[in-house]
């Protein structure tokens, strides 16, 4: 049964963590997987999560099953966080999923059932797991132009020109904020323009928002998504609590469907539940129980928002400090674009070989596509990393 299987290819992000761990060099720097680190290089459990854990331990009386959709109060909290104040609130349904990748797969499976001929358009480049998950669901995938290697910003005109070709059988996958891997986000005018194209040409927007709060703040990061939800009849959304609640290993996310009516989304949710039953039955509870506990408690919500905002500020500072170091100690403004990028990631514009050189000669681990995780930097690493970037460039 197994002998004809080819040697497996390694996941371009997850395999880096293993290689980093096995690297004996003391000055190694992990800028691979998207995990936030504080200035001590640690990823501590967030304060609000620690408090919520105490509450859950004290109040949870059973470990019996929750239900196919997971925790419904969690689902509602996720919908509120993303869509509050929009007209979509009365025509939306959500299920809890094992992380956002689980949500992507559930919505991929739903599209395959609801509209089997769907082509999913993903940005070039996009999150490394978008194509594999959509293809695993049996969907066709194509790229739309997104990032300009020259300006290191979004090539909005070209993107819109290509998206104008998308029609009713197409689904356009957008990053809600903090584009992965580039760090270059579309502006609000582009959100408006894509919304108009969706209305005019009939494609369905699909927003993957895994970093809400890491860009310009919780509300601001949802602005484009909210505008879209207010103005289109149907829309798909995936979200994650891995980053903004620091719940990476708990696999806590949600798949959200906005439809023409409450009846439509109720049917879509029913289908999602059957698909979940045939895949993993129901999601793990712990992470969602913690998030629900925080978002239903005003004091805990304040503690969480404060810490998230500190993390966001720290990311901005790290970007600035790195650019200052490159400008002041190496006399180069070549990397000034790093300051304009949003969230955890930035694409340096390096080739696979240059990324390999960073890793082999300097022990600096970034993804092969040129992505580095700014949130993996510590202040003390910056001079070393800046020097390596200049030497490799
Ligand atoms: C990343 O892009 O580094 C993270 O989202 C981790 C993952 O699941 O790939």
Structural summary, described in words:
This protein is 45% helix and 13% strand. The model has no long low-confidence stretch (mean pLDDT 97). α4 packs across α5, α4 crosses α10 and α12 packs across α15. α5 links the parallel β3 and β4. By secondary structure, the chain is α/β, with parallel strands linked by helices. It has 2 domains: 137 residues, Aspartate Aminotransferase, domain 1, CATH 3.90.1150.10; 232 residues, Aspartate Aminotransferase, domain 2, CATH 3.40.640.10. The chain binds (2S)-2-hydroxybutanedioic acid (LMR). The site of (2S)-2-hydroxybutanedioic acid has 7 residues, from loops. The site of (2S)-2-hydroxybutanedioic acid (LMR) has 7 residues, from loops.
Write the layout of secondary structure elements.
Blueprint lengths: L13 H8 L7 E2 L16 H13 L12 H12 L8 E6 L1 H16 L4 E6 L5 H7 L3 E6 L10 H8 L6 E6 L12 H14 L2 E6 L8 H4 L1 H9 L3 E6 L12 E6 L3 H16 L8 H10 L2 H33 L6 H4 L4 E3 L4 H11 L1 E2 L5 E3 L8 H11 L1
Parallel strand pairs: 1-10, 3-4, 3-5, 5-6, 6-7
Antiparallel strand pairs: 2-8, 7-8, 9-11
Bound molecules: (2S)-2-hydroxybutanedioic acid (LMR).
The site of (2S)-2-hydroxybutanedioic acid (LMR) has 7 residues, from loops.
């Amino acid at each position: 049964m197994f002998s004809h299987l080819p040697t497996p290819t390694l996941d371009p992000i997850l395999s880096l963590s293993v290689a980093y761990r096995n690297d004996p060099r003391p000055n190694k720097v992990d800028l691979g997987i998207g995990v936030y680190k504080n200035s001590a290089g640690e990823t501590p459990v967030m304060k609000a999560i620690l408090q919520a854990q105490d509450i859950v331990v004290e109040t949870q009386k059973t470990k019996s099953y929750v239900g196919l959709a997971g925790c419904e109060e969690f689902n509602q909290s996720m919908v509120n966080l993303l869509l509050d104040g929009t007209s979509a609130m009365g025509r939306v349904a959500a299920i809890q999923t094992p992380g956002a990748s689980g949500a992507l797969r559930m919505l991929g499976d739903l599209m395959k059932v609801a509209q089997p001929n769907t082509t999913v358009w993903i940005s070039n480049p996009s999150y490394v797991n978008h194509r594999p998950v959509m293809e695993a669901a049996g969907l066709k995938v194509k790229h739309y132009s997104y990032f300009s290697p020259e300006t290191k910003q979004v090539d909005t005109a070209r993107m819109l020109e290509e998206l104008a070709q998308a029609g009713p059988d197409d689904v356009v996958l957008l990053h809600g904020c903090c584009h992965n891997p580039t760090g270059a986000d579309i502006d609000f005018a582009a959100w408006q323009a894509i919304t108009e194209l969706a209305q005019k040409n009939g494609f369905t927007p699909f927003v993957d928002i895994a970093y809400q709060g890491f860009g310009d703040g919780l509300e601001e990061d949802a602005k484009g998504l909210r505008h879209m939800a207010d103005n289109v009849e149907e829309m798909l959304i995936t979200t994650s609590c891995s980053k903004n609640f620091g719940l990476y290993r708990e696999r806590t996310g949600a798949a959200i469907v906005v439809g023409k009516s409450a009846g439509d989304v109720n049917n879509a949710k029913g289908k999602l539940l059957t698909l979940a039953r045939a895949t993993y039955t129901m999601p793990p509870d712990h992470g969602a129980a913690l998030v629900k506990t925080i978002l239903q408690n005003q004091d805990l919500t304040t503690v969480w928002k404060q810490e998230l905002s500190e993390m966001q500020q720290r990311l901005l500072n790290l970007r600035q400090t790195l650019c200052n170091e490159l400008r002041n100690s190496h006399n180069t403004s070549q990397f000034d674009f790093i300051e304009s990028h949003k969230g955890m990631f930035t694409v340096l514009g390096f080739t696979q070989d240059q990324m390999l050189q960073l890793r082999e000669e300097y022990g600096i681990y970034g993804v092969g596509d040129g992505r580095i995780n700014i949130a993996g930097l510590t202040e003390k690493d910056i001079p070393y990393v800046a020097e390596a970037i200049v030497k490799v460039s």
